[in-house]
Amino acid sequence: MSLEKVLNAESVAVIGASKVETKRGFQAIRTLLDEKFEGKIYPVNPKEKSILGLKCYKSVAEIEDPVDMALITTPAKTIPGVLKDCGKKGISGAVIIAGGFREIGKQGVELENEMVRTAAECGIRIIGPNTSGMMNLKSNLNLVGLRDAPKGNIALLSQSGNMALTLITEAKLKSLQGYSYYVGVGNEADIKFHEYLEFFRDDPETKAILMYVEGMRDGRKFLQEAYKTTLIKPVVLLKGGRSAAGKRSAGSHTGALAGISEVARTAFKRAGIIVIESSDELFPAAETLSSLPPIKNNHIAILADGGGHATIAADLLSDMGVKIPELDETTQKKLKKLLPEAASVRNPVDVAGGTDSDPTVFAECAEAILKDPNIGGLLLVGLFGGYGIRFAKSLALNEEDAAHRMGKMLKKRHKPIVVHSLYDSEKPHSLQLLRYYNIPVFGSLDVACKCIGVLAEYGNFLKSYHAKANFVYHWREKTETEGVNIIEKAKTEGRRALLETEAKSLLRLHDFPVLDDTLAVTADEAVRAAKRIGEPVALKIVSPDILHKSEAGGVKIRLSSEEDIRGAFDEIIENVKRYKPESDIKGVLVSPMAKKGLEFIVGTKIDDQFGPIILFGLGGVLVEILRDVSTRVLPISERSARKMIEDIKFYPLLNGYRGRPAYDKKALKNLLLLCSDLIESYPEINEMDLNPVILHEEGLEIVDARIIIGEEIKF
Amino acid sequence: MSLEKVLNAESVAVIGASKVETKRGFQAIRTLLDEKFEGKIYPVNPKEKSILGLKCYKSVAEIEDPVDMALITTPAKTIPGVLKDCGKKGISGAVIIAGGFREIGKQGVELENEMVRTAAECGIRIIGPNTSGMMNLKSNLNLVGLRDAPKGNIALLSQSGNMALTLITEAKLKSLQGYSYYVGVGNEADIKFHEYLEFFRDDPETKAILMYVEGMRDGRKFLQEAYKTTLIKPVVLLKGGRSAAGKRSAGSHTGALAGISEVARTAFKRAGIIVIESSDELFPAAETLSSLPPIKNNHIAILADGGGHATIAADLLSDMGVKIPELDETTQKKLKKLLPEAASVRNPVDVAGGTDSDPTVFAECAEAILKDPNIGGLLLVGLFGGYGIRFAKSLALNEEDAAHRMGKMLKKRHKPIVVHSLYDSEKPHSLQLLRYYNIPVFGSLDVACKCIGVLAEYGNFLKSYHAKANFVYHWREKTETEGVNIIEKAKTEGRRALLETEAKSLLRLHDFPVLDDTLAVTADEAVRAAKRIGEPVALKIVSPDILHKSEAGGVKIRLSSEEDIRGAFDEIIENVKRYKPESDIKGVLVSPMAKKGLEFIVGTKIDDQFGPIILFGLGGVLVEILRDVSTRVLPISERSARKMIEDIKFYPLLNGYRGRPAYDKKALKNLLLLCSDLIESYPEINEMDLNPVILHEEGLEIVDARIIIGEEIKF
Known about the structure:
Structural class of chain A: alpha/beta
CATH superfamily of the largest domain in chain A: Succinyl-CoA synthetase domains
Largest sheet of chain A: 7 strands, mixed
Strand order of the largest sheet of chain A: 9-8-11-10-12-13-14
Oligomer: homodimer
CATH architecture of the largest domain in chain A: 3-Layer(aba) Sandwich
Distance between the termini of chain A: 19 Å
Number of helices of chain A: 25
Helix content of chain A: 25-40%
Number of strands of chain A: 29
Largest interface: A-B, 79 and 79 residues
Shape of chain A: flat
CATH class of the largest domain in chain A: Alpha Beta
């Protein structure tokens, strides 16, 4: 059901309306009146006749006209009953403020489930519970009690009321940008992050979406919607609750899963989301992205009136992977004409006093720089805005002139400008003028760098999005009947683990390069198989009852002579029978010894919030210590598979490090893609381990495979 | 020579004094007058009679009274001449503003050298050149032209004028703390960083030292002075010019070496310096450290009035390695009494609305928390200061009450409190009150976290400082005559590389566990040596003319029979003669094959800015890719040696990872200490490579050693 009537409600019933000033049921009505909500307000309280001059209804049923949504301020235990009343009235949405649900434990979970069931039966969509409320700033539908929130083009989704307050206050105090909507998602009991995202994607007034998240109820759907959204407008997100203490804190105040798994960060970025680590940068990044075009070529120029700021900015941008290329010769020549001899004109550009007597020189330098075809955006750092304060009052007028000129430049060239000013807190008029032209200004150098940085990051994403997976599954598209049979057989026999032979057969069906091995039921068969394969060979027990083959004495390697093979076969059978007498022995697997190569592990498993994910890393103990593994949410595209490989720290090893051979990266990439397809083809696969995988200069071999089946994945 | 007369000058001559308002020579005098410099001012300009009501002198010689220091505003080329005049007058110090020295290249370097020579001859100490000037805010000796700089207890050293301006402006706008001194070090031509540091260490008004550095002329001496300083007062430092673009920028505006080598960060931290990465945190960290006692036990509590801030703070502090332990039961009980049921009282503490009607509850919670014996400091985050703004005006008084109480708590308990407030920019009185009690308040959550974090970092340093090396060498304390002879012999023969046999002899003299090998001059000798050592053995050519032994065919390994050894000996000699006919062959080294173990490299070399350093890391290609090496400036203490080993990523491997054997860490630590001693004993050693070193479960073996000698190290 669309959220139209919920987030764009034209009438609202306040259930739990009150005359007591400290109560939420009073404050809500006062705020709606003070903020001049464009729709209708219906206070509901059986004990009152009127509140703040509005007629008060005994129940929602009494209200004469249709009502879009209800703000419910009554306690948790009353909610299911209240929802039934709302349902009868035909109300479409409810904001539920009360806490006392999922976040307090088992009892709360039950109440929340009951509430969600009731709401579904009544056709009501719920924001919250355990939320600070919601605001539609276009119609002044303010159900938060926070006044004078600045209006603008950013939609805000937050799992923390005080983070929302921070972000709204910051916009008000430090920017000309503001919000189109705010939603405190609360426990996400009914409406989930991805639904809000979808709504904001379609909202024409919303230019960017800003999120504070501590956990997600349906991460997979969120990714799918995020991917579609970021192609149209930027999404900026900060994720709290990474550390143990942070998780403890998150768990105590939201009903969400405490913290998000490590895979989230990569998945968010893959979906084009701008992931922010520092809370200082969160609003500024959204402000910048909502106001300016992305940088197309990852190249920026720094313009400074002093060395220290230029140096620090260059360091920070380099850390972010943004390029600060030397300016082309024409540009350098132009700058030389504009600036004194001591100036540095390569990039960073340091005006070396060249703006002291006339700050309009900044605009001239900016013009020259933005004309450079190789430069995608400009970061101005230092004292701009403060010349009129520090040197001579009249210079403030030159600064205003420069601000107008830079503003017009932005409109003409579509190359973004971001400004750092030491004098931002003094609020000089020239800086307000810049903001008027959508040029964001920051008092912090770090924040200004981050903001031009995210314009480059978003530009890089848009340039390459088409090569990326969209997190949507194509279930069973490549399923093979024989494969289904293998899985069905295991199910019928009540097994969750496929036999090694079954797992390998399934893989071979889908062209995985599995080591060429054969099941032998007798010693004779083993000898014949070894002849076919070529000695030396390895023998391994195959039995659903033996999980740890080596421990059971079920593995023998490097066998060459017929005698050795026969001996090993018999010994394995004996060992296993002794180890677990009732074992169902299917036979012994005869495999060639793998050629030497680089050892890898590849695996898939199910993540709570994001569904099936794939892992990949080098094998061996050194790598275990470093946890040098790259992970992705499935499915993956060719590009993601390549990036996964490039992400591991030991990547240079694959390229023929210092005269060593180069390995077959293409085979590795294909293997990752095959895994992605396999999971789509058989959603019953809950876990898969290919370990070891031996990579060669040409091709690779899967030596061992383990597949665990279970309930069908639904994401 | 002490800097007393320079930094605490009681009289100053302004050379290049002017009546032209835009000239530095005018501005300097006006600033000194406006700021009410307590000493005497002598304008010097042959063309003027008086400037701004002060008598103007034709030359310094004309001034009747003695003069402590000169501010020289004339161009670069005039400086040596001016200095001579100053010398004759007996002036002790000079601030040289002009650029055009080392930073412009070769010609500038020559002029700078001439200037330094002249100054030394005249007994004058120089600040700069290429500096924005200096300020002594105690006597109002303001030679910068920046007015109304806030006075206080922080001494500021900066290599960038605009970073200094940033830091001074920030103090003025956002804090009650200010500066005792500012020095723009400029090109560090004469007075170096470490001399300023020493001066500030002894200055009773200076409580903390704040530094912005892009490069250092004498890093080693700086470390030595820093080590002594940080035991007495904190030093906070940001290092610019890490990236290539940053170095380009730094190089273009300071005469310093562009950027500081990677070893600097660790060395600074070892010397107890608080190294800051983000320029937003630089002044706040100094403000905090200058105002509050360090945290003794690395344990802090977070007190919040909302979940989001608490969660983010917990994440950030965990990232810094600060512990956020659960509060003890008594404390939790007390908090439960103070707060509503929904509150979280473990840590982070979330008041859950418990302060809404009365913010003095914050003070009560703070009292309970700081009484907890396990808690060393408190971070208050959220809305404090804004209750009077957001909820009801009268609450502002409760907030002021709470501020007074927290201020007194600080004085009583000596446990620091740091405050984050969303309402900081609104400047409520309660927050100013906190500052009055030395409780720093920040509008940024990130910055507030960093600031309580640096109090813990500094506390950790002070607790452990006695176990650390002080960067002072004890030259030649453990020198052996025989060792001196080995080095002298190589010198006499004009060799920079010691022969492998010489290097190993030198190491053995100092009890390094070198593989037991013998030089054989004939095949017979080789066979006898192999008998003694026990086969299998390796043979390696020894010749000053052969650098790459394997390439020359000069290495044969795993030789067991007499025949093989003879054959290999002859073949090696032949190969080498063919490879380089004129080679001076000293013989063949007969070595046992090293036992299997973990392969390491240990090396020493000379760093431009910090002198001798030591490197240590695992051997092999994987490690090369990861650059998993830890480095330290020499000499190192036992603690540093241990920390070096713990620093490498593969450290867990040494402890017996997953049932593997544990290796002899003590032997490794001893080896690092032996290297440290050796470099002190023979300062002629410029470079040493022990590669490979094989580490065993017990002991280790040095298989190969290379030592390069050169000019004696002087640091």
